[in-house]
Structures are given as C-alpha cells and as structure tokens.
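Cross-check.
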Amino acid sequence: MKTSLILVAGLVGLTLQLAGPGFLTRLDAASPPSGFVALFNEKDLSGWRGGDTFDHRKLLAMPEAERIAKIAAWTQSMKATSDKTGKAHWTAEKGELVNDGFGAYATTEKDYGDFELLLEYKTVPKADSGIYLRGVPQVQIWDHTEADPSNLGRAKGSGGLWNNSAGAPGKDPAVMADRPFGEWNKFRIVMVGARVSVWLNSKRVVDHALLENYYDRKSPIPAKGPIQLQTHGGEIRWRNIFLREIPSQEANAILAKHGGTGFQKVFNGKNLNGWAGPLDNYEVIDHAVLCKPHKGGTIYYNKEYADFMARVEIKLPPGGNNGLAIRYPGTGDTAYVGMCELQVLDDTADQYKNLDARQYHGSAYGMIPAHRGYQRPVGEWNFEEVTVKGSRITVELNGTVILDGDLATAKDFMANSAHPGKDRTSGFFGFAGHNDPVAFRNIQLKALK
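Predicted model, tokenized:
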C-alpha cells in the first residue's frame, strides 16, 4: 500500500509539472506552490504599502525622512475610505484583495530581482489596470471589448508590456487570452534581468521581451524593485498572489535557452584546442578557462569574425579583472589595437571605487561606459551576451542591456589615449587576462554575416 501511495503521489506531481501553472486551481495563501511565498495573506494588507507611478531609483535616492513621508502619504491614500462605499480603497474580503478603482497602488514592501509571479485577477467592464514589475509599468490589464477610438490596442487583449515603445517586442500580447467578465484570469510572469515572459490563462502572450524603462528610455530598469498592483478607475479583485525568487543558476539557464539558434561552441571544456595566443598563461579547471594568477595576455579563438554575437558565462573572484577582446588582430594590446576590450571587472571591489566610468564591467574600455549594478555577487556565474554589428556594440548582462553604443561616434577617450583599432571591421574574439583567475565557460559564437 505504501508503495502504491508513493507511486500515485509521484504521478500526481508529474501531471502538475507537465500541465504547467495554468493547471493549478485556487490554492490557499497558506499553501503556495512549492518554492513560492504568498504576498497576500488573505486577511489584511500586511507586507504592502502605497505607491504610485514613480521612479524607484529616485525614491531610494531621497533623504530618508523625505522617502518615509512620501511612502506614508501613498499608504494613507491606499487605505483611505471611499465616499461612495464607506470602505477603504483597498480591502481584504473573503480571501481576495479588492480595490475600488481608486487610491494609491498596492506596492510590496520588499524589492525583488529575478522572480516568477503567479496571481489571479477579476475585473469589470471598462476597467483598466496593470502590474508594475520592479516599479516599472506595466503588464497591461483592460477591457478588450471596449471601444478604442484612440487605437490603444484594447482588442488585442491583456498581458502586453504596454509602456514599451510602439512596435517593440512585447508591446502587444501575441494572442488575445482574456476570459469573459465575471471569470478569474490567471497570470504567470517570469522576469530575469529586464527580460519578461508572460502567460495569461496558460497562453504565452509575451516571450522573453525586454521591459523598457518608462522613466528613462536610455537607462535599463532597476536591478531590484517592488511589485505594484495598479488601480485605474474600475474595481479589480486579486487572489492567490504567489512569488518565487529565481536563483542565479536558474536565471542563467533561462537566458541560455532563448535565442540560441546558430551559436557554435568554441570551447570544449577540456583544453584550448582551436585557440591561439599565450595559451600557457591560462588553464582549464572544472570546464572553465581561467587566466593563471600573475599571468596575462590575450588568447583568442582562431577564427576571424566580422559581425557576430558571443555568449559566455563569467565568474569573477574578489577584485577580478579581465576583458573580452573584440575584433582583435592577434597581437598587441586589445584595448587599443582591437576594435575594443569589453571590460570584465569586479565592480564592487573597493580598490576600483574611483575608476573612470569607462573602466567598469561591460564598458568599451576607455570609450563608452556601461550601466552598473547588474553583476551577480562575486563567486556566482554571470551570463553575458555581446552583439557586434558594424561599429555598434551591445552588451546584455544577466538579461539587462548595460551597453548599447556606436564606437564610430566615440570622440572623447580616457586619458586622451588613441584607440586606432576601434574602426576595425573584423578580427578575433578572446580574453584579455590581467593576472586574475577570472573564469569563463559555455563560450559560444555566432557569425552574423
């Protein structure tokens, strides 16, 4: 009997896995799916504060007293009593988080990085709402049957990243998946870096799209921020709000499985066959290639590329320093004779706190600075993707674009040092070691022409 029960339990678990999140029926907040926590306890607003459409970075940058006062004002608005119903704008009713369409947004007190979010919602005709991810608008919720004289896209349904630029991936949902009014809708949202995938009622409506920064289109979204439930003039009910934080290893696997067509592995994890340069200064340990301590020089995959993409996982030791050689000619200092050296650096090390902005991780060394704050903790593997097209270089670190620049426009060079190789149209890809055992693995290249 015990064996039979174990077998049945295993089959039930396998069925749930194969069916996916859309198979799940309503669950108690006290019993979220394995690995998830309940953001709403079904009783009150514990764990939630008020919020608004407000740049989270600016909120964190405020003096503490000013920040506390602003949050308090939002929270007071969230809990304020409606003149029409006599109830607060946000209430807990029979296991549901209910909003009357007014007041500040329900905002988690905790900030999140990479996560998987499950929730259900039910709204009314002509309602308009959404889910802010890390404080950035938004996964859209609205009435797809309402007239749309301004051509906003209502008929396409909910679930799109509505505040993305027109025509950008994810702006509109891939399919219309809304259920009729009076029925509960189920969202599953996976966010890694700025990459967002959305399932509405088990249909994928957004596939690994970059969420744009509504507050500053030239900057990536914050690495961490709150979940916000938007209120927008019509009643909406929420339940079964569950969240699972995604660890770095899983996050890297999610990034690796998207867009991998056409990439070629150029490192076999055993030796440096196919590579050239000062190979004796490097070693292979646990399927990764490392610069030996107190050694250096640029090694490179011995095939020349013009336009290409590179994918590589990078693990930095404390204070680690290395670089990605881009269109390297095979000899000389890659930062200057190659198209560029993309910096690989432990940005958190105290010894580097006063560097030029163009020396931090992901920067086109000495020419164009990268955005900071997107590295994983020292000792964890980072997933980096580089795209080189003509004179333009894009660097995506852990799912967030930290550099997108045209070297042809670079005129101001660090220390007024010339970069004669920046206009190279082809060359080798490699690693520019600087004495530290920075580790690289899962190295893949893809020619673009």
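The chain has two domains: 21-246, 253-447. The chain is about 10% helix and 35% strand. Passed to J.P. for a second look.
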